[in-house]
Amino acid sequence: MILAGPFMPFLRPLGPPRASTVQRAFRTFTSGAVRRQGRASHVPSPRVYAEPVPAQTQVQDLPSSPLPPPPSPPSSTSPAAPPTEPYVVHRTHSKNLPVFHLAKRGGNLRQTKIRKVEGDISALKLQLQHDLGLEPKDVAINQLTRHVIIKGWRRDAVKEFLEKRRF
Prior knowledge:
The chain is of the alpha+beta class. Helix content is 28%, strand content 16%. Strands 2-3-6-5 form a four-stranded antiparallel β-sheet. It has a two-stranded antiparallel sheet with strand order 1-4. β5 and β6 form a beta hairpin.
């Protein structure tokens, strides 16, 4: 059996590289000293810095009034007190609560997911069941991802629940 064309045409020799490829490789593999000798345009210009202002003029400009008293420590009844719950729900980078709606099985299964829970996640589940009036089968915990999954779309109620507890 005699073949009319080459046996494996995809294994043909390649042409020479482009000039820009050769120049880039030359710039990459040569030292910086050789490059600066060849091209004067790439030599960085010396930087000129402004002279520092003497410290005496800065001290004289300051007012001689006394400093205000330091702020008093916040009381335990202030609204900014940390939550006393056995769990913490951290906010997202955009300062929102991590409560999301999910639609699965073609939109027939509606769920609400709470992410970023740290601490006793079962205590959060029990409080959600009590405050939202849910049955135990309607609230589930994914122990691997530490997410609380609630049956139905209840994002607004859950956000209100978490904001009431200062998360």
